[in-house]
Amino acid sequence: MSSPVEFLELLAREAAAVEFEGPLVAARAAGLPAERLAELEQAKVVALRVRALLARRRRRETELSGLYDTASDLAGLRDLDDVLRAIVHRARILLGTDVAYMTLNDEERGDTYMRVTDGSISARFQRLRLELGDGLGGLVAQTGTPYVTSNYQEDERFRHTGEIDGGVGEEGLVAILGVPLRLGSSVIGVLYAANRSARPFAREEVSLLVSLAAHAAVAIDTARLLAETRAALAELSAANSTIRAHSSSVERAAAAHDRMTALVVRGGGMEDVAAAVTEVLGGALLALDAEGRRLARVGEIEEPDRADIVEAVAASRTEGRSVRRGPLWYAAVVAGAENLGALVLRPDDELVDADQRILERAALVTALLLLFRRTVAEAEGRVRGELLDDLIARPLRDADALRARAHRIGVDLDAPHVLVAVGDDAFAETGSARQRVLSWATTYASTRGGLAAARDGRVVLMLPGQDAGGAARAVARDLSRLTGRPVTAGASGPSTGPASLAVTFAEAERCLSALGALGRAGQGASTAELGFVGLLLGAVGDAGDRDVSRFLTATVGPVVDYDARRGTALVKTLEAYFGVGGSLARAAEQLHVHVNTVTQRLERVGQLLGADWQRPERALEVQLALRLHRLRTPAR
């Protein structure tokens, strides 16, 4: 008999994806009921999702292992050629390309030459030299920016030459990715991964190749430092103490790099990285995220002004090195073109060049940790989103099971919550913009102890509290800032317990529809604030706004237009008149005018709307139109 356990057995033996259909095929052949088939189908989907996650983890472990092996090569650097060949070979294996190679700049000749190749079969290709700006590699070397092309021969973004095109054609390369080897603010060469057939290069692959290029640059720089040290020892015996200090700093940098790499492998945190840096360099260190919030602090160090941080991080990113501002050193924490934060160091002693590289390597490790933390957060966000999706679904499944799931992630379903539905105006045409809004909503809800999910193409948030209107306005305001366009949000609640959440969500959606019908796009409100009009308009649909506008024009349009042209207060007088039950005296008292003034204004209303405007059926329509008019212009 097929059961979900079989999928666990398939996962345990790392079965191929096609084998996960086996239990379902067997279940259908056995004639199991539809409920059991649906359960098995769900178990299969979850198992395949776990299988994909494990595959991604294995791939990430392989990449980290490759980076760790490269770091170990650098720590025990003896032969530069061996290290560079190892880096190029690992680039080819980790990215799964046909060819990988490296070019270095020739300062004397002012061009770039082929240094190391792996997987190449063309002697002509292996002897290529590129002028700065020629070909993809020349452009990368000149600009210091990664470039990728899916079809080299047809790409017109860079300058083609017969020699380069001939070598690339003889090698049979089609898709090429090139990243710069940066040494400080200078580009000393280019590391490539290339394929003999068309293929895209994902952002993660670009980041991985950038990391390997950074290791290669460190290897070249370390070899340069060792060569300079040997020459200094041979030439200047009097500078023996200085050379020893310099050699010690290089060894300290390699040891620190090994230690920080080990931290990544065993799952260390930001506090561990900060402690490792301060133990090696001394002083105090502050780790900040992209918004300037503190991630970790070791030792006594004051947080710099936000403006100083922004300027120093921008300079560090531009120069590709740590920078000094007064007594503090800043190193930008980046992943590709994305700014993730900064490390701020107050050292006890002056930093030498190798010490700066320790700080820069710590920034690279920090970027890896933050990216990993983001991946974990995204996985948690999916779990929270699935819970909210189940909570607002109809019919509601096992309430106790839902409570248990919520408890595991720190959410108390029996506490008061409000539901906020976000309008489609939050999304641009692209899927990335929709994902950005969902990511924001997930973070916004989780930091407040709530949940967020995407349902039927719409984002919904469940937030603890009782002020539904305030929550809707806050979401609309913050999302408008994020997207750069007005965002509408409808809310309902508070709701207590799993059983009422689906009803509350439906009310929030009706509130959202009512706001659109009332012409209040870009605002936030709750069902309680709209009253019976919100209930009436919630089911109107997409045509609601046009219907409301036509109704207002036909019912009180002449009065509204008259006020707009003459600056009179007929609408206000009508609202007061109906609000006091048709009493002229009480309306005059409320408006702070004479009774005769109220009478004259109502006579003017009769001229504009017709003599029968006070008949019961007409009066009801006028009162409803006045209410709709006020809701469409809440600023009044």
Automatic annotation (TrEMBL):
<dbReference type="InterPro" id="IPR029016">
    <property type="entry name" value="GAF-like_dom_sf"/>
</dbReference>
<dbReference type="Pfam" id="PF01590">
    <property type="entry name" value="GAF"/>
</dbReference>
<feature type="domain" description="GAF">
    <location>
        <begin position="79"/>
        <end position="230"/>
    </location>
</feature>
<dbReference type="InterPro" id="IPR041522">
    <property type="entry name" value="CdaR_GGDEF"/>
</dbReference>
<protein>
    <submittedName>
        <fullName>GAF domain-containing protein/sugar diacid utilization regulator</fullName>
    </submittedName>
</protein>
<dbReference type="Pfam" id="PF13556">
    <property type="entry name" value="HTH_30"/>
</dbReference>
<dbReference type="InterPro" id="IPR003018">
    <property type="entry name" value="GAF"/>
</dbReference>
<dbReference type="InterPro" id="IPR042070">
    <property type="entry name" value="PucR_C-HTH_sf"/>
</dbReference>
<dbReference type="InterPro" id="IPR051448">
    <property type="entry name" value="CdaR-like_regulators"/>
</dbReference>
<dbReference type="InterPro" id="IPR025736">
    <property type="entry name" value="PucR_C-HTH_dom"/>
</dbReference>
<dbReference type="Pfam" id="PF17853">
    <property type="entry name" value="GGDEF_2"/>
</dbReference>
<comment type="similarity">
    <text>Belongs to the CdaR family.</text>
</comment>
